Amino acid sequence: MMTETDAISIAGLVKSFGPARALNGLDLVVRTGEVHGFLGPNGAGKSTTIRILLGLMRPDAGTARLLGGDPWTQTAELHRRLAYVPGDVTLWPNLSGGEAIDLLGRLRGSLDRRRRDELIERFDLDPRKKGRTYSKGNRQKVALVAALASDAELLILDEPTSGLDPLMEEVFRQTIQEVRRAGDRTVLLSSHILSEVEALCDRITIIRDGRTVETGTMAELRHLTRTSIDAELAGPPDGLAGLPGVHGLRADGGRVRFSVDAAALDLALRHLTQAGVRSLVSRPPTLEELFLRHYDRATANLKGRHAEAGR
Amino acid sequence: MNAFAGTGKLIRLVLRRDRVLLPLWVAFICMIPVVFVGAFTGAYPTAEARQHYYETSVHTRAFTIAYGVLNGSSLGELVAWRSGFVTFMVALFALLTVIRHTRTEEAAGRRELVGATAVSRHADLAATLIVTCGAALVLGVASALALIGQGLPAAGSLALGLGFTVAGCVFGAIGAVTAQLTTGAGGARAIGISTLGAAILLRGVGDVAAQSGDGPAWVTWLTPLGWAEALRPYSGERWWVLALAAGAVLALIVLAVALSERRDLGAGMFQARLGPAAAGPRLRSPLALAWRLHRGPLISRLAGLALVGLVVGAMSASLGTLMDNSGAAAREALARLGGPGTLVDQFLAPMMTMLGLVSAGFAIQAALLLRNEERDGRAEPLLATPVRRLRWAGSHFAFILLGPALGLIAFGTAAGLAHGLNTGDVARELSRLLAAALVQLPVVWVFTGVAFALFGLLPRLVAGTFAVAMVSMLLGWVGQELQLDQWVINLSVFEHVPKLPGGVMTATPLIVMTVVAAALVAAGLAGFTRRDMPTT
Question: What is the recorded membrane topology of this protein (chain A) (predicted)?
Answer without folding.
Answer: Peripheral membrane protein
